[in-house]
Amino acid sequence: MRLDRFLIHNANISSQECLALIKAARVHVSGRLAESVAQLLEEGDTVSLDGQPLQSKAFSYFVINKPAGVVSARADKTHSTVLDFIKAGNFVGELPEFEAVNIGKLQIVGRLDIDTTGLLLLTDDGEWNYRLTAPEHHCVKTYRVQLNSELADGLVEKFAKGFLLPGEQSITLPAKLKQVAPKEVLLSISEGRYHQIKRMFKASKNRVVGLHRESIADLDLIKDLSPGQFRFLSAEEVAKLG
């Protein structure tokens, strides 16, 4: 782990404050003056600030069943946000464990449109967030899609090959499309372009009228998690995802 990541999480400071503290020679790693914000901590290293050792705090990982009409943002002047549900304590599990979470540090792992429902992840672990959302990692996400018109012939093959969306310069990555009803499909994609699913079907002369994310990688949305409810991810789930 980088030193700045450790300090941000365990000293509750900003990245700018990390740099200032290290420049001021106020941070030590295992008794030695810290070298830089990018210094890598090894197993067994201790970090102290102004001579006081910092305790390593566990990261938090949540899954929430996002309702429609809620924005994937930390704050919004008009609409409810997923963080509002966290702050309201709409939590499934052991309350004492949740009370130890620093809600102000939570990040949204990827985003869902305001009218899209389903699985959404939150964490205060920035590196884990990056591993799940960076384009080069190709994390597979599966959506249940309701369409305005019946699925056109040849669309499964078209999505599997990838195609050029209007305004784009590269074709989409191969996507897996499975028809479950005349106007309903399961779609798995491994990238996250702007409004990608809606644009893919629009380019195919159809229109998305309902969109629900069912899974990310090996994590399926727990069916007993009602819209707006959230829970901690298990250590096994965290490891599988990132």
Count of DSSP-assigned helices: 8
Please indicate the percent range of residues in DSSP E strands (runs of 2 or more): 25-35%
What would the CATH topology of the largest domain be? Alpha-Beta Plaits
Structural class estimated from helices and strands: alpha+beta
Please mark out the parts with pLDDT under 50 across 5 or more consecutive residues, or reply none.
Answer: none
Give a count of the beta strands, DSSP E runs of length 2 or more: 15
Q: Please identify the top-level CATH class of the largest domain.
A: Alpha Beta
Task: Please summarize the sheet with the most strands.
Answer: 9 strands, mixed
Number of domains: 3
Mean model confidence by pLDDT: 90
Task: Please supply descriptive tags for the structure shown above.
alpha+beta, Structural Genomics Hypothetical 15.5 Kd Protein In mrcA-pckA Intergenic Region, Chain A, Alpha-Beta Plaits, 9-stranded mixed beta sheet, 8 helices
Describe the 3D structure:
With 242 residues, the chain is α+β, with helices and mostly antiparallel strands. The protein folds into three domains: 3-53, RNA-binding S4 domain (Structural Genomics Hypothetical 15.5 Kd Protein In mrcA-pckA Intergenic Region, Chain A), CATH 3.10.290; 61-135 and 220-241, Alpha-Beta Plaits; 140-216, 2-Layer Sandwich (Alpha-Beta Plaits). The chain is built from eight helices and 15 strands. The chain has helices at residues 3-10, 15-23, 82-87, 95-99, 126-133, 155-161, 196-203, 235-241; strands spanning 27-29, 32-33, 47-49, 52-53, 61-66, 70-71, 80-81, 107-109, 117-123, 141-147, 176-181, 184-189, 208-216, 219-220, 230-232. The strands form three sheets. Strands 5, 8, 9, 10, 11, 12, 13, 14 and 15 form a nine-stranded mixed β-sheet that branches. A four-stranded antiparallel β-sheet has the order 2-1-3-4, with no helix packed on it. It has a two-stranded parallel sheet with strand order 6-7. The longest helix has 9 residues, at 15-23. The two termini are 15 Å apart. The model has no long low-confidence stretch (mean pLDDT 90).
